[in-house]
Amino acid sequence: xxxxxxxxxxxxxxxxxxxxxxxxxxxxxxxxxxxxxxxxxxxxxxxxxxxxxxxxxxxxxxxxxxxxxxxxxxxxxxxxxxxxxxxxxxxxxxxxxxxxxxxxxxxxxxxxxxxxxxxxxxxxxxxxxxxxxxxxxxxxxxxxxxxxxxxxxxxxxxxxxxxxxxxxxxxxxxxxxxxxxxxxxxxxxxxxxxxxxxxxx
Length: 201
What we know:
Layout: E1 2-6, H1 17-25, E2 28-31, H2 33-36, E3 45-48, H3 53-61, E4 68-72, H4 81-89, E5 94-97, H5 102-110, E6 118-121, H6 129-134, E7 137-141, H7 148-157, E8 164-169, E9 177-181, E10 193-198
């Protein structure tokens, strides 16, 4: 059985008991280096997840007799590896264990309700900055190509310099940091982060 387990923002305390149990029962653990480092005593086989997804899919096809757990950042189906695995294998061949997304976590830490929020990501996609500037409330999972500074500059260029950016770095970890900034106050370097954009604080 192939299981995709949501890691939440990254700290084991934020994983569900079901996800932790799946890891404990696994023969093989697949994940990014940061995720695998959370399980230093895992006794089975470990495979690091890299950018070669086709190679991973081909390898997973050969592992049907083993209990394989793929660790996913946040929630597996919120711009995560789970989407690709469902498309390839079909949901009947998978067990998806949900996790807390970084956007959910940041909203819970700041008291921002999610009822009318536009959820998006810059991972592997072109960002619609025009829509970003129009939407009253946005949560975006960022990457190295499109981080807070790029978003802030795009908002300023579109006349939205009065928006608030809520930037959450290293969420759920010991070095977590959350800042409320106007676009003009956003600097260039942030660690792993998610951004919420608001019309008002």
